[in-house]
TrEMBL record:
Protein name: Glycerol transporter
Record family assignment: Belongs to the MIP/aquaporin (TC 1.A.8) family.
Cellular component terms (Gene Ontology): plasma membrane
GO molecular function, one term: glycerol channel activity
Species this protein is from: Fictibacillus enclensis
Length: 275
């Protein structure tokens, strides 16, 4: 198996288990309906662990464009391989979403809530707020990369690393995930969101494209920042790239804040006119 195919398969496994657990606890008439957040967090952690176990020896099991870009940024992955890995991750995530759709085929019609259906495929914020939603994804993915690099720096019993990575995902979900659903992975959100858009899901609503940029941009900015911060804190490597990326992240977050405030004011004004 080639590394590119490995990323397709690994990311597909990630979404089958991850999207699957959300469908299991959310869709009507599922025997696991109402399973709750702890079940979701455990399911996603095991989803990552299974994906890493499956293809770790084939591709390194990035399964996440933010991880791929972050590793390239600190010199642990070739930039020439980045585009192929990201495309493979996107394809795998899309296919995983399609498989989840067929697994729960009769349950879509039984579930009336359009937001619940979309939530099986992609994330959305508990409280829509551009700045805080972007910051949540930034912080969550920065923590992910610091954690991944710290895990990689330690020696565990052979074969245990993927499980430790899974526990890291569980920890992020339990501690930080309630704000936005912790995408912390552009492919995990965008690939299944595209599946939601194209699939003939009974009674579905829109795919919430207005929000879709946040779980893409936030994890990319946060992931690269987290990897660069790890280099600063644990290896003493303070580079121009670190400062440049820090400034870029601050500018993007500030721009998102002002754009979000402008959008809120426009919405409020529009509501006054309508009412």
């Amino acid at each position: 198996m080639s590394p590119i195919l490995g990323e397709v398969v690994g990311t597909m496994i990630l979404i089958i288990f991850g999207g699957g657990v959300v469908a299991n606890v959310s869709l009507k008439k599922s025997k696991a309906e109402g399973g709750g957040w702890i079940v979701v967090a455990l399911g996603w952690g095991l989803a990552v662990a299974m994906g890493v176990y499956a293809v770790g020896n084939v591709s390194g099991a990035h399964l996440n464009p933010a991880v791929t870009l972050a590793l390239a940024a600190v010199g642990e992955f070739s930039w020439s391989q980045v585009p192929g890995y990201i495309l493979a991750q996107m394809l795998g995530a899309f296919l995983g979403g399609v498989i989840v759709y067929f697994q729960f085929l009769p349950h879509w019609e039984k579930t009336e809530d359009k937001a619940v259906k979309l939530g099986v495929f992609s994330t959305d914020p508990a409280i829509p707020h551009t700045l805080s939603n972007l910051l949540s994804e930034f912080i969550g993915t920065a923590v992910l990369l610091v954690g991944l690099l710290a895990i990689g720096a330690n020696k565990f019993t052979e074969g245990l690393n993927p499980l430790i990575v899974g526990f890291l995902i569980v920890a992020i979900g339990l501690s930080l995930g309630g704000t936005t659903g912790y995408a912390i992975n552009p492919a995990r959100d965008l690939g299944p969101r595209l599946a939601h858009f194209f699939l003939p899901i009974s009674g579905k609503g829109g795919s919430n494209w207005k929000y879709a940029w946040i779980p893409v941009v936030g994890p990319i900015l946060g992931g690269v920042f987290g990897a660069l911060l790890y280099e600063v804190l644990f290896k003493g490597k303070v580079t121009a790239f670190f400062w440049s990326w820090t400034v870029l992240s601050a500018v993007v977050i500030a721009a998102a804040h002002f754009a979000g405030k402008r959008g809120t004011h426009s919405f409020t004004h529009g509501e006054r006119i309508k009412n």
